[in-house]
Amino acid sequence: MQEIPFYWSHGDESSNLIFCMHGIGSCADAFLPQREVADQLKYRLVAWDAPGYRYSADPTTEPGIDGWADAAADLIRSLGYERSIVLGVSWGGVIATRLALRNPDLVEGLILADSSVGSGTSSKNAEAMRGRASALRDLGAAEFAKQRTPLLVGEKAASEVLDNVQRLFADSIRMPPYQWACNSMADTDHRDSLPSIEAPTLVICGEEDRVTPPKLSAQLAEGIPDSRLVHVKDAGHLANQEKSENFNTEISKFIQSISQVSRP
Predict the structure, then answer these.
(1) I need a surface site. Which of 35, 78, 93, 199 has the fewest CB within 10 A?
(2) What pLDDT digit, counting tens, does each position of 193-228 carry?
(3) Contact 110, 18 (CB under 8 A)
(4) Is the residue at 151 inside a domain?
(5) Sign of the C-alpha dihedral, residues 4, 39, 200, 192?
(6) Domains held by the chain: number
(7) How far apart are CA 214 and CA 123, in angstroms?
(8) CA distance 90 to 30
């Protein structure tokens, strides 16, 4: 992963950083609603297209979860930061967890949204995750996104939310990086590593998440010392997009709470 991934930045470049990592079927623009958090708290918000997604170049070899986590760490440091709030949604949360384990000095606070310990918890789960990419290969990005999008939001999601999620999904994924991302999830099981996480952690999930149900967020919260678990009412798997106001309120409170502790 020699090339710097694509990212966009919002806010004063001299401010403290919130670094955002999207899910397995999305891109940096999934975090456009979180610009309000940066404005409110006077932070800088940076969101990436993970290597192999949308505008970012494909990795030269299959990265694995370590490779994506190290690419994120490299990008944060290249932006001039030694510490960051790290926000990851779904697959991005699994990358964020690995980032916090491999580079604890870099993570001031960890936000795991609608995420999990990975799909390597059983051979059945791992096989299902690896096989997901076959639908992209068979259907193409547009149809695959159309079929999968309804699973990603709550039952009462607004049509504009559905349309936006589907558009970002279709525009962001391609082979082989999507297969590699699925493989990275299938190869990951963070259950035994969670007690080693040192960063203050917020685990947040939509009450109606059907992709990573709330019990998986509870598993994260139970494993990470002193973490906090919050549910977002009437939201599905992409709570940060579907119910952004409530989501933003919760992550703002969390960031403010750790900022008061870590800074004079």
Answers:
(1) 78
(2) 999 999 999 999 999 999 999 999 999 999 999 999
(3) no
(4) yes
(5) negative
(6) 1
(7) 21
(8) 12
Contacts of 100 (CB under 8 A, 6+ apart): 86, 107, 110, 197, 198, 199
Specify the 3-state DSSP secondary structure of 157: coil
Write the single-letter amino acid at 230: V
Residue range of the domain that includes 23 = 7-262
Unique residue bearing structure tokens 């999207």: 22
**101 in Cβ contact with 204 (< 8 Å):** no
Distance of CA 23 to the CA centre of its chain: 5
Beta-carbon count within 10 A of 131 CB? 12
| In contact, 207 and 178? CB cutoff 8 Å | no
1 belongs to a structural domain: no
CA 96 to each of CA 85, 140, 156, 181: distance values in angstroms, whole numbers, following the listed order: 10, 28, 29, 14
* Domain presence at residue 78: yes
In a domain, 2, yes or no: no
Q: How confident is the model at residue 1 (pLDDT cuts 50, 70, 90)?
A: very low
Q: Are 50 and 19 in contact (CB under 8 A)?
A: no
Give the CATH number for residue 198.
3.40.50.1820
C-alpha count within 13 angstroms, C-beta hemisphere, residue 13: 5
Enter the tokens of residue 41.
């708290």
